[in-house]
Amino acid sequence: MISTFLIVACIAFSLWGFNNKSFFEKCVFSPYAVTHYQQWYRIVTHAFLHADYMHLAFNMYALYLFGKSVEQYYDFLFGIKAAYYYTLLYVGGIFFSVLYDLVLQKNNPHYASVGASGAVTAVVFSAIVINPTMGMGIIFIPVYIPAWIFGALYLLYSWYMGKKQMDNIGHNAHFFGAVFGFVFTVLLKPKLLLHFFDQIF
Q: Lesser CB count within 10 Å: N end or C end of the chain?
């Protein structure tokens, strides 16, 4: 399965980065380096690196939980095109999650980010489109709410924290990755939007 391959790739890439500072620094997402030195590869490579073991574990756990489910949904919905569409979902999540910061931070040589969060969030929100009433919650907190409510709260939180910029978390990447995952899935299968609202109401 594609999710399994992505998990293995992220783990291998991240472990290499943990032990090779030069490699890590060459692969992080740096809008300044992308814009001024045309190092476009960083848009992709940063999504396979992680800041630490906890960051890696959290993202890979989320991808494990939702990735396989979305792949199964895609198999049912799209047949032989499923793998192609799922790959586009993940890669598109990588690209769209950083576009805002690419423009916003293009002249800031100190800005850098890593992590698969944007792509993983795209996968999670694809799952929310398909099954909006499934239970979702925060890890280690045994309280679950309908996925569509969790998703709405997550978007509001990410948007707010992205504006405040009070920590080192890529809230903008989370927000735009989520939006991409939702919109991309609906564009693939417009009837899912009707299904989404039917499930809610």
A: C
| Best CA proximity match to 13, nearest among 116, 126, 149 | 116
> Among 175, 78, 13, which residue's Cα sits nearest to residue 86?
78
- 138-153 pLDDT, tens digit per residue, is 766 677 899 999 999 9
CA separation for the pair 12, 156 (Å, rounded):
33
Output the CA torsion 157→122→125→159 (10° steps).
20
Cα–Cα distance measured from residue 62 to residue 95, given in angstroms and rounded to the nearest whole number: 19
Sorted by where each begins, the domain ranges of the chain are 2-200
pTM of the model: 0.93
The total number of residues shown for the chain amounts to: 201
Q: Which CATH superfamily is domain 2-200 in?
A: Rhomboid-like (1.20.1540.10)
Amino acid, single-letter form, for residue 97: S
Q: Which of 69, 73, 75, 57 is nearest to 14 (CA)?
A: 57
